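Hi team,

As requested, here is the filled-out complex form for the 2'-O-acetyl adenosine-5-diphosphoribose run. I kept the field names the same as last time so the parser does not choke. Let me know if anything looks off before we queue the next batch.

— J.
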Amino acid sequence: MKYKNIFILTGAGISAESGLRTFREAAGLWNEYSVEDVASIEGYMRNPALVLNFYNSLKEDMKKAEPNVAHRAITKLQKNYDGKINIITQNVDLLHEKSENENILHMHGQIEQYVCLNCRKVWETEESVYISTPCPYCGIDKKLKPHIVFFGEIPLYMEQIERMLMDCNLFISIGTSGVVYPAAGFVRLAKHYGAETIEFTLDGTENALHFDKSVFGKAGETFPLFVEKLLNDE
Ligand code: OAD
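And here is what came back:
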């Protein structure tokens, strides 16, 4: 086994071939919606109904989506590779879970979870949530916020992630533009601690210069080939 510890960072690009929209490309969500309106605490305070509806609609798209060959390649790697493989995803969709990937951390939250701003409990539901939906724990309405990390909020699991970055020997990034921190800085930390680094991306990313290697093209085409190579070299 060449790598004892593999860290896989994924972004919206890995879900693009499952039909889900990315954020910053021409047809991306942030070209249609204002981040300040739908992905900030101020936006939520101003108009919670708008925010809840935005994520209700994303949730419907995500429910219909199926994992693609890149997700399946991770499944194959995790089932057949001896080393430890952690997946840290910025995605709020559940395609890693649907593909039976393991050791997944949703650092930006996930689409089916809501946090109650009154009692702070986290609730999970596949159904749409409205401002009239009461918190199932404290019974108060108008307080459920999507449990998604908004701009200005600190991503989840950061201590665990930092330890994983220190421990990994191979850092893989798939389908992320490398502009949103702290995730965009992970490659530098991993490298600092001695990992080899490789990214799979459609075209160039902001972070290209920090990777030992950039592989361009659709992750569904490039990543499975890399997995085969890793398994053959084992
Ligand atoms: P972006 O939309 O910023 O970047 C997606 C990246 O995926 C781009 O570099 C694309 O070129 C690449 N890409 C697209 N299709 C691909 C394919 N088939 N194969 C490989 N790469 C492909 O999305 P993220 O980097 O994930 O935060 O964005 C980071 C965060 O910004 C998101 O988690 C989201 C957003 O605001 C929250 O929602 C909290």
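Two things worth flagging: The longest strand covers residues 109-116. The radius of gyration is 18 Å.

Thanks,
J.
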